[in-house]
Amino acid sequence: MQEAARGSPVHAPHARRHGYALIVVLGALVILAFLASHSSKTLLAEHQSGRATQELQQRQALSMDAVTYVFDLALGAQTPARLPLPGHDDVWVELVDLGGLVDLRTARSGLAAQVIDALDLTADQERRFRNWQRASRDEADLSAFLRAIGGTPDQLVALSRVATLRSGRPGVAPQQAPQAVLDLFSEADGAGVPAAFTSQPLRTLRQVWVNRGGARWLAGEVRLADDSSGAWLWAP
């Protein structure tokens, strides 16, 4: 009692218990906040993954519909270059003659070099590409080609816009060449496709691109014909 009278603090047992309880409550709140944050991030990641899976499935289905529709036209070389896809709003099919693309296997070296420069390959990828050319590799499609030179999947879209492995041509057909191919030469000298790099179109070998809203993706490469000999040659 004398110490209390002089101003020395006296902590009652129930006050200490209240302090401990407050610490426990605050600790529990911190843990709950952490768990809630973690759970929210997990749910968001699962939602995004689910949407990505759904988008991929929708694209695969549209690609199948697009290629099937092109085959059903049975027009061969006369098939138009741009077609609305029946049964789908705001979905278009684009057909690109493979003769308008650069065949990385058979193109003249200067033409292939334009593609490599445009793709901005690493030094190691360029080295592996030159080795691939000299070895006359038998990769059947651009996906296999990228794996052979150590490329990455995200390079496939840019490569598909300008190149193929199926035309068998030393050059490109300017009238059938997509804008991405023509841009290779406009950036170089602005004079269009040089005569030395000009070849004939293929007509019945085409890329099939699907356009939906602002998205555009490659369904694959096909051979068109008036009879049943058409074939889906490659799907990325």
Topology (elements, then pairings):
Blueprint: H1 2-5, H2 13-73, E1 82-84, E2 91-97, E3 102-103, H3 109-119, H4 123-135, H5 142-148, H6 156-160, E4 163-164, H7 179-186, E5 205-212, E6 215-223, E7 231-234
Parallel strand pairs: 3-4
Antiparallel strand pairs: 1-2, 2-5, 5-6, 6-7
Helix content bin: 40-55%
The strand line-up of the biggest sheet is 1-2-5-6-7
Q: Compute the gyration radius: what is it?
A: 31 Å
Number of domain modules: 1
Beta content = 5-15%
Tell me, what's the shape?
elongated
Task: List SSEs in N-to-C order.
Answer: HHEEEHHHHEHEEE
Task: Figure out the total of helices.
Answer: 7
Mean residue pLDDT: 80
Count of extended strands: 7
Structural class given helices, strands, pairing? alpha+beta
Return residue spans where pLDDT drops below 50 for at least 5 consecutive residues.
1-5
Cα separation of the termini: 88 Å
Major beta sheet summary? 5 strands, antiparallel
Provide a descriptive summary of the structure in words.
With 236 residues, the protein is an alpha+beta fold. It has helices at 2-5, 13-73, 109-119, 123-135, 142-148, 156-160, 179-186, and strands spanning 82-84, 91-97, 102-103, 163-164, 205-212, 215-223, 231-234. The longest helix has 61 residues, at 13-73. The protein is elongated. The relative contact order is 0.15. The model is unreliable at 1-5 (pLDDT under 50).
Name the features.
alpha+beta, 236 residues, 7 helices, transmembrane helix, disordered N terminus, 7 strands, 46% helix, membrane, transmembrane, General secretion pathway protein K
